[in-house]
Amino acid sequence: MQIKPREEILNRINKRKRHFVRKRKYAQAFLDAGMPQEYQALLNCEETQALVCCSHCGKSWYVTNRCRKRVCPLCSFRVAKERGNYLKALTARMKYPKFLTLTMPLWENNPQEGIKYLRQSFNKMRRHKLFSKVVGGSYMIELKIKPTGYHIHMHIMMDCPFLPYQKVFSAWKSLVGSDCPQIFIEAVKSEKAKEYVAKYASKASDFDSGPDVVVKWYLAVKGQRLFTTFGKWYNAKMEDLDAEYEVFIPESKCPYCEQMQTVFFARDGPFIFGHDEWIIIRSFICKEGYEVIDIPEIRDAINSEVTGNQVSLNLE
Ligand SMILES: [Zn+2]
Ligand SMILES: [Zn+2]
Fold it and tell me: Considering the domain boundaries, does residue 95 fall inside one?
């Protein structure tokens, strides 16, 4: 809730400056595409603080603003890390870790429909007897933009004693069409699994980066679930991580009154309480006027021309 010591913030920025710079480039791409809301959300992410309030004790304070967008280099990294930790804990207990990649023919229509189609096909595949021994798993959908369409494929991680390649391939081909490219099945030994999981977990943010395709990619996957856990692996928190909208309460416990689930973003006030009611309630619980404030140290550090340790030297 309190802003961290200056030095700590600066060290953190120095290490990640290039990601901030990339985030700003992406923000600009959204502005150029006529999408000012996405521009602002990306620009504000981790460079500003947002006002939060507790409806129980009426205290308000600021927390780091995060955009939670998949295209955000900072947010997608954080999500990948959290997801990676969860999957690592799961795979450590897996008997027969298998990684399966399912591909589709080049998709030339609406990419959102393509993602849905892939998901539906996989759900059918899961009911196939080949998958009867699978107790749980997770999958990640990847979409790459190509000149004439989209390459959409899926990485599945699951615990399964035996997957005969030829049979899995035939079953998949009969679902998605005969011009389906190869599929991949890999059994991973436990020592190797750790590395693999880390790579796998960061996949969702692995779009063909570059400001030129970032808007196109964003629109192609917008509102679509790309990461899912299933069977015994199902985890609601991991599912929420994939949602781009604000589904979580900024702090599950109020640091002042210790009440659970009473903390919310001031900007969500009108949606939670209703527009007119919020005007009245706000004056009681939000003493501060601004819903977003700058973190000058961060903006200065990113705006400066120097990099690395020089930044902290210049500002100290
Ligand atoms: Zn409180
Ligand atoms: Zn962000």
Answer: yes
